[in-house]
Structures
1.
Amino acid sequence: MQSPLKGIRVLDLSRAVAGPLCSSLLSDLGADVFKVEGAPHGDPARAWGPFDDDVSLYFSSVNRGKSSIALDFRAPGSIDLIRELIAQVDVLIENFRPGVMAEMGLDPEELRREHPQLIISSVSGYGSIGPERSTPGLDQVAQGMSGLMSVTGPDKKSFYRLGVPIVDELAGMFSALGIVASLVGRERGGEGSQVQTSLLEAGISAMIFQAQQYLSLGTVPEPQGNHHPVISPYGAFKAADMPLTIAVGTAKHWVLFCEMLGEPDLATREEYATGALRSANGIALRADIERLLGAQTASHWLSRLREMGIPSGPIYTVDQTFADPQVQALEMVQHVADDQGRTVPVLRGPLWIDGVATEVRSAAPGLGSQGEAVLREFGIAQERIDAFIGSGVLHVRPRQETT
């Protein structure tokens, strides 16, 4: 695989999900990522379950392809060491609250003056301006405040969070996009940039047409359960044995769909004659469709639907997802060695370059497991490294005694 970011060095000070996912995506594309964690406990996500032995799978899922260095940020000399590392990287990633970096002695504006080519990526809860700029933010808080939860659930009385930290993930993806754009701009003769986003902005951005209908029409959207709010039939429908997703998005597909169900007259009923009418009469339409789908299994209907080119698919549990032949063909799961010498399954990133899927370069690192090697890679002499260990700045795993 071509590695578009080969040779790019990233220093990652971020924790939890958004920043770490961003740096993992950069690693997938070839960047060398050095994760700096606060000792003695490291990234707080290391304490979040579920666990495989004592390894947090929450942490592992967004920290593939990195080296870990553990520093005691409060120890004298630790911030100076971080600044020394920053001087040799292309990208710095952080997700502290606005102002915290400056309090630590790592003011982004000062760093940019000292290193004009440096790209700094910052993710906050609410943004760098406004009355809540210093308020801590987390994914579900942003899901609620952005409006995402207000359109997710069975009805307008029940708001649901999404089953994954989607706002964290989006903020990480948006940050990676901003970093790559800044690298392109710098390559064309510019300087570095400070790329900023927030969980709140990422969540609002994800509202797309739901937000736009409010801005243009003043319509406040409500939850639609498992059915599309403006296209019908488009949602989850029960067959004889299990539900499946069916998306009938065109007039041609609507006619074919009704023929497939064995009731072609359904397509010409007055209440279903147009897309707008089908959407307005969605509850009755769903009842008619499920009455007909109940005659056969989901696999029967999926085969027919796909023959006709109507978008459709099963609704899987996670084990069914990974057992599906299409998912297996994509080789989304790669097996790599972790710091304990075990071979572990890791979900790869979703990108392909020149027909080749991105590789998982390494499993998520143990806390500080590459600390000495990282400092040597940055040209720091062993006697200085030993001094950092002795003073408590650098935390490393106990060295194995040789016999």
Note: DSSP finds 17 helices and 16 strands in the chain.
2.
Amino acid sequence: MIMQTLNELDQDWMRCFQKPIIISGPCSAESQEQLLEISKNLDKSYVKIFRAGIWKPRTKPGGFEGVGEIGLKWLQKVKEETGMMIATEVANTDHVKASLAYDIDILWIGARSTVNPFTVQEIAESLKNTEKIILVKNPINPDFDLWVGALERLVAQGIKKIGVIHRGFSYYKKSQYRNHPHWDIALNFKNFYGNIPIICDPSHICGEREGIATVAKQALNLEYDGLMIESHCNPDKAWSDSKQQITPQQLVKILKKIEFSKEQDSKKTQIEILRDKIDELDENVLSLLASRFLLSREIGMLKKKHNVDIFQPNRWKQIMEKLECFGKNVELSSDFIKVFLEIIHQESIQIQNRVMLDR
């Protein structure tokens, strides 16, 4: 079966690298001079793989969508002058053919592509039996099976050198992250497929420079195999994702700091990993409560406008009955549900009272 093949696959390509693998370079290629400047400023004692986006999928048309095939020639130049391996994203068969023609060492399938099995299948077939290293970013949506399924499609085409990139998942509520890490999903992947290398992409998780060091350290504490961090010699002037790129000098400072702290940290215990998951879920709960209270305020404004009483006994009764039933289905006690909802209800009433008194 394909699943058994995936579990048993020996990723000997990893033995060519000293852990952690560090991949860095700009979000997108802008010119040959830009790529050479960045690559020559990266510390080669840490960074072994140079990355650059050649084709850039954009949410809306009209934006910068990459320089196209000419950028592959620039990547080749980087490899010639620095000796670094080179990597880029592919999203269709034309991208694959061009990248193979220019002997790109590592190709990755982006989150927008991973979400579509038809796209992954076409890419996998165009890469049939390749000896290149193929990495798969997690899908935009927090879908574990979709991520694993993309790998299975590659393995079914005789592709043996594979790995994954954890770049976070879209989240429908406001969060401190651009893409919520959902560490639990990545850790589940590590538990089921410990033989498959996993690389963290703090740049896309954070969406801004602040936080990259923290996320990178968290990933290495969780024993990830490497990091992909975007770098640019003049990040503020970058043509795409300028806020999440750092300079090569900032990158080496982060890596040295992580390296130093890691020497003092023992391997994370299972209880510490579970606590990390709890911390993440606590943030999610607070974010959802904040959104709920904003709605309470809007309702308060409507009640004030239409001269409606704040406390609505029938509505409160409906909420209690509905959520007590839901609580039982998710194994929460009736007593806990009552206390929890009472606290939320009292806060909502206070918010609406303040709205009523606001002149």
Note: The beta strands are 21-25, 47-51, 85-90, 106-109, 133-137, 162-166, 198-200, 226-230.
3.
Amino acid sequence: MNFDPAEIADLDARDPLRAFRDEFQLRHGLIYVDGNSLGAAPKATAAQLAAAVSQQWGEGLITSWLGANWSTAPQRIGDKIARIIGAASGEVIAADSTSVNIFKALTAALSLRPDRHIILSESTNFPTDVYMMQGISAFSGGRIQSVAVEPEAVLERLDEDVAVLLLTQVHYKSGLVRDMAEVTRRAHEKGVLVIWDLSHSAGAIEVDLNGAKADFAVGCGYKYLNGGPGAPAFLFVAERHHSARPVLSGWFGHASPFTFEEDYRPAEGITRFLCGTPPVLGLVALEAGVDLLCRADMRELRKKSLRLSQLFIEQMEERCGEFGFTLVSPLEPDLRGSQISYAHPNSYEIVQALKAFEVIGDFRAPDVLRFGLTPLYLRYADIVEAVERIREVCVTRAWDKPEYRERAAVT
């Protein structure tokens, strides 16, 4: 479906999510299509951080651990995230990084399957997921084996030796969406527990962890949850697995942390999956982003996401089809997350050149351009204009400059 300017304007005027854009700090003229890497800043974040610093910390000092509920922030924010990912109250905590939470989930799952020795993933998974698996394997002296197979071979590799399967629901490069319910069902038939990485799902697509009977899940706080750079991540543990024992037994996971007992005694419920002292300021920023999403209708968000991505694909084919872009993301809407990815021989240079044209996307090695589509603040008109600017970069070969050829440390 091709749109004329009047139709695009009408889509934006009728968008039930349009009011959310004004709640984000986005400069005029910028088209930000990198929310799958770092979400935009909610306007409320700065004020809430300022209050936390000047009032809760500055005035309340240490009394704010109770007076401002600092000590229970991981559980409180976790319960809010639970509403976004189809979990129940008391099944999610906001804490630590995604990598650390993957380690917690893997070791907790292994504690529930002590007679099994394989942790399984796909070879194209986001690297940190597999790195954590490899670290556990090395620490175990090889007793636990880390196995990563080709994506299409994952389900066939499930057997009675596999303790846990770690998969990402929405692939970080292509945006391909895995069928969480079906994969979990197939794994459970073999007695395998499943950990889902929701880093590109939470806040981007509808997620129903309990509907899929998921065992564990982890996710990122700084992408579609808009929690800010390095925001705390989250960890979901299904209530039926709350007796599991993660290896990281820190003091905030203790049943009574302020009695300062010499031996570890795990807390009940999701609290036992906490570790160190909560990063209060990071949690304040994360909560501002999560609160915005809790007000949004996830069905409307997903509907708009698919319309934005379909428009992007069609505009790229029409306006940039001659320039050698190869679509990496699935054409079938239900298999597509909230991003569009293309392969191109000069992908890195194009992404860098686009910054001068006020379009911020990102690059993933070896040759992928990613455009994250965040429905809360992107308009249909932004998609059309972004593609026009991509076309201009290609027509003028603005990407063909020496300063764009040397890759930066962070891409």
Note: Residues 63 and 331 are 54 Å apart (CA to CA).
